[in-house]
Amino acid sequence: MAYVDAEIASQPECWQRALDLTPKGLPEPGERVAVLGCGTSLYIAQAYAALREESGLGETDAFAASEFPAHRRYDRVVALTRSGTTTEVLDALARTRSGATVAITGDVSTPVVDAAQHVVALEFADERSVVQTRFATTALVLLRAHLGAAPADLPAQAQRALDTPLPERALASKQFTFLGAGWTTGVANEAALKVREASSSWTESYPAMEYRHGPISVSSSESTVWFFGPPPAGLLDQIALTGARSVVSDLDPLAELVRAQRLAVGLAAARGLDPDHPRNLTRSIVLDQP
């Protein structure tokens, strides 16, 4: 069994632990907030930023850490970094000119602890696999709970996602498009990344209403179009005309992401790939500094 299999399976327990936490340093209502990350952490940042704004709790921007506009004034900057060593995240924190800084990390023995004013430790969700699964979802559960936007049964829904069979024909598909809306667009982006990096599959992701504006052109009988949340009116009929299969679930979108993680590992296994060590990837990007 790959490390990532065990890490995916541990998510119900990790999510429950996150729901039980009372962390300090997270954004307060009304604050103007920037959320930073790289790779998977960027997409979790996107989901949180959209959900915080949807909840009416304050203007919230998500950035790739390398693109953070440090000249802007924020009341708080939140950095997501599993490893605590990602160069772009550390650099962005060092360039921050205003507001409090908080890092959410899986390793408190790393440089991010000194780079941020506050640290939220999720060491119980850290991972051995290069591919992020449980750390990212656990961080989003924590952030959703802080917003008052985490259903109490999320761990149970994660277990359902582990127990529910993968969609018919999914493992035979050659192209995947993941669609979301609002905060679930970030979840869709993460699903696409997960399947792409673990299995070297052709994946795309968009806001669902954007799918008609070009992306539908690649859908065919070899495609799966996977929704995180309810599909827009009429879109399922249009997808059916392409020959692609649609996947719609009644699970919370974050729990549905667990099924996409399982798809990624299943595709990797079918193709003889090692999902713990995707080609050309490392667990953390640490760059040489000039």
Share of helical residues: 25-40%
The portion of residues forming beta strands comes to 15-25%
Main structural class: alpha/beta
Spatial separation of the terminal alpha carbons: 41 Å
Sheet having the most strands: 5 strands, parallel
Q: Total number of helical segments? A: 10
CATH topology of the largest domain: Rossmann fold
Helix and strand pattern: HHEHEEHEHEHHEHEEHEH
Supply Rg: 18 Å
Give me the side-by-side strand order of the main sheet.
Answer: 2-1-3-4-5
Indicate the overall shape.
globular
Total domain units: 2
Stretches with pLDDT under 50, minimum 5 residues: none
The CATH superfamily of the largest domain turns out to be Glucose-6-phosphate isomerase like protein, domain 1
- Strand runs, count: 9
CATH architectural type of the largest domain: 3-Layer(aba) Sandwich
> Would you tell me the overall average pLDDT?
95
CATH class of the largest domain: Alpha Beta
